[in-house]
Amino acid sequence: MNYSEVISISTKGETDIINITDDVSRIIKSSGIKNGIGCVFVPGATGAITTIEYEPGLLQDLPKALERLFPKGIEYRHEQTWHDGNGHSHIRASMIGPSLTVPIKNGKLILGTWQQIIFLELDVRKRKREIVVQIVGE
Ligand code: ZN
Fold first, then answer.
1. Could you tell me the pTM of the whole model?
2. What separation in Å is there between the alpha carbon of 73 and the centre of ligand 1?
3. Could you tell me the distance, in angstroms and rounded to a whole number, from the CA of residue 38 to the centre of ligand 1?
4. From the CA of 52, how far away is ligand 1's center (Å)?
5. What's the pLDDT tens digit per position in 39-73?
6. What is the number of structural domains in the chain?
7. E-state strands within the chain
8. d(Cα 49, Cα 19) in Å, to the nearest integer?
């Protein structure tokens, strides 16, 4: 069996971190699939999907770590192509990745106790995002 749904969100701009765990769980429930895998994917080259312990400290630590690893304000060749000021956004998105696969057992996501699924806005402006959740199983 195969089921798909889209999560529509509006982001507040750069390094907005949105917890989409409840949306993904709701979609799994709607699918009726009890055992299988769920793929959460964002179409777009400046957004990312990953997991985190969704607590206030880490919500500040993650953007700070991204700034240390992939700083703004250094030279990105992307700027010469598009002049859109988001070279660092693209590199961050490539490094974290646009998707996550989660196992589903007895109709529920297998996640750690504090592990939450997040969408991470990496673009330099507010965006509307359509996150695809595709579930395969039985
Ligand atoms: Zn760009």
1. 0.96
2. 14
3. 29
4. 26
5. 999 999 999 999 999 999 999 999 999 999 999 99
6. 1
7. 2-10, 17-19, 36-41, 47-53, 99-105, 108-109, 115-121, 128-137
8. 10
